[in-house]
Design goal:
single chain, 387 residues, mainly beta, Neuraminidase, 7-stranded antiparallel beta sheet, binds 2-acetamido-2-deoxy-beta-D-glucopyranose, glycosidase, repeat, signal, glycoprotein
Length: 387
């Protein structure tokens, strides 16, 4: 009798536990939906600028959004003179400040290239890192430059030449964001990954353990054949986006420039906070088909989000995917953000502890009707349908 009663009580408790778990899971089921989209920059009628490209997006220390792009003055080429333009939103993307130029590369013959934005949450500083003379067009030495903002992106410092510390090996940061390590190994470290020239190439990270005062290089994931002229199907990891996982490892998701092994993304994990990108930790993610492009990646509360033009041959079909198991597999369901021409993208979210901020991510991407360089578009995505 007593045992029977205990069993009954236990089974009631168990069913409550099961019920609560089921309810939790269904509430927490990720089912993203685009709730807002607006164009931040347009190619047509923009006066002194020919083309806007390479959009970066970050949340700031004070919980605002910052969108940063290359404003290409004369034409749409990667090389050539540019401004860096920014817009800032203090209401989670509903309205934006007018576009302003924060850098003019007028003194650099080859122009600048973006770039990586990284927030030091311990010191409330935003760093923006870009390159000069990456294409060796009318110049022979490339430089890695950095500006910083201590007032949430309202104003920026004079540029600092990081090549004085890093050396003059070509390094194109991002495009996308860098991270500050939240967990060991390397808690507090700033990590910004990028790629070298096509000949030397490979992906490597630059790191700072003192809040951006001194920077040093990590070990590269090298291209093959290293330091030799490449052919199609050779291994060239290019334009990476990195995220930190909850176990402190870093996942780097890179462009597969010449489609080695697959028309899909190159993934490499760093287990030492970005110091090395070991070949043992390399794989190809066949689900993440890709036309060779810079993509968006974000880790939010243990869920990985990924955006790219999901097509093996052409830059179109900008798609959001998500993974609940650290990228081992991706949910079959996807969200198509834009069926047409779309190229580079970048994802961010707010991490304020404010409950509303758990429910949204934000994407910025290159969007067009005929060509993806026509506009830069901002999208707000609600993660949980019906909430
Ligand atoms: C940055 O420093 C490097 C190394 O000293 C130098 O070669 C390069 O010219 C500098 N770049 C600029 C823009 O001053
Ligand atoms: C768009 O992406 C989805 C997800 O990868 C894929 O199933 C679909 O075939 C793609 N469509 C086009 C036209 O590329
Ligand atoms: C997801 O897609 C894969 C590959 O097409 C398939 O094997 C699997 O059964 C699908 N899973 C679900 C839950 O539909």
């Amino acid at each position: 009798m007593e045992t029977g009663c205990r069993t009954a009580v236990l089974s009631v408790i168990l069913s409550i536990v099961v019920f609560v778990r089921v309810c939790r899971n269904s509430l927490a089921e990720i089912d993203p939906v685009v709730v807002e989209e607006l164009l931040l920059w347009e190619k047509e009628g923009m006066g002194e600028v020919n083309t806007y490209r390479i959009p970066l997006l970050t949340s700031t220390p004070n919980g605002n959004l910052l969108a940063i792009v290359e404003a290409r003055k004369m034409n749409s080429d990667d090389a050539g003179s540019k401004f860096i333009a920014q817009r800032r939103s203090t209401d989670r993307g509903a309205t934006w400040s007018p576009s302003s130029f924060i850098i003019d590369d007028v003194t650099s013959p080859d122009g600048l290239n973006l770039g990586s934005v990284v927030v030091d949450h311990e010191k409330n500083v935003i760093f923006l890192i870009y390159t000069l003379c990456f294409h060796f067009n009318k110049c022979s030495t490339s430089s890695v430059m950095m500006i910083e903002s201590k007032n949430d992106g309202l104003s920026w410092s004079e540029p600092r030449n990081l090549s004085l510390q890093l050396g003059v090996e070509a390094f194109a940061p991002g495009p996308g964001f860098g991270i500050q390590k939240r967990y060991d190994p390397g808690k507090g470290r700033l990590v910004v990954c990028g790629h070298g020239t096509i000949e030397d190439d490979g992906v490597f990270c630059i790191l700072s353990d003192d809040h951006g005062i001194t920077w040093y290089k990590g070990e590269p994931l090298r291209s093959i054949p290293y330091h030799h002229k490449k052919k199609t199907l050779d291994f060239i990891p290019d334009e990476p986006q990195l995220v930190e996982m909850l176990d402190g490892s870093i996942i780097v998701n890179a462009r597969n420039q010449y489609k080695y092994h697959c028309k899909c993304r190159v993934i490499v994990r760093s287990l030492d906070g970005g110091l090395t990108l070991p070949i043992e930790e390399l794989y190809f993610d066949e689900t993440l088909i890709d036309p060779s492009v810079a993509a968006g990646l974000l880790q939010k509360e243990g869920v990985l989000y990924f955006t790219n033009p999901s097509n093996t041959n052409s830059r179109e079909n900008l798609t959001l995917r998500w993974s609940l198991n650290n990228g081992e597999s991706w949910k079959n369901k996807t969200v198509q953000i834009w069926p047409g021409p779309s190229c580079y993208s970048c994802i961010t979210s707010m991490d304020t502890g404010f409950i509303q901020d758990k429910k949204y991510i934000y994407v910025i991407y290159e969007k067009g009707q005929k060509n993806c360089d026509e506009t830069i578009s901002f999208v707000k995505i609600r993660l949980y349908a019906g909430h």
